Amino acid sequence: MAKLINTHGEVANTPLTQVTFEQWQASPNGNSLELFLSSDQTADLIGDQCKSFARICIDFPKFSDGRGYSAARLLRERYGFNGELRAVGDVLIDQLFFMKRCGFDTFALRDDQVLEDALAAFSTFSVSYQNDVLDQKPLFRRRMN
Hints:
- Helix content is 24%, strand content 21%.
- A seven-stranded mixed beta sheet has the order 2-1-7-6-5-4-3.
- The radius of gyration is 15 Å and the shape is globular.
- It is built from five helices and seven strands; from the N terminus they run E-E-E-H-E-E-H-E-H-E-H-H.
- The model has no long low-confidence stretch (mean pLDDT 87).
- The relative contact order is 0.17.
- The protein has one domain (3-142): Rossmann fold (3-Layer(aba) Sandwich), CATH 3.40.50.
- It is of the alpha/beta class and 145 residues long.
């Protein structure tokens, strides 16, 4: 079973009723649901209704598939999703820093990933030039005069 972490360490999995996009589309209800989005399902499919979910899991079927980054950023910035956003699937240590910047707050690590290395990956860079979901200002706007 995958290790579930956030930026502070390993976390327990709070069980929620998980539904796929297709199941939710057939019967959209409930605030205690966890929505599972596959990599070919975009954030625009649920739009503002994303706020009705307690958790949204975005699948990364393989390391090189970056569509989940866009979905996460759209859910946070355009649609105002404030619930738990979880990266699942082929989640590797190399991706964690960037996933966090896109809005993910929990990460289901692949079984072969080392927890201590994963936690260290969140501090790979001390400063980022570009803006992200946590800080909308690019570095040149954050500089003090």
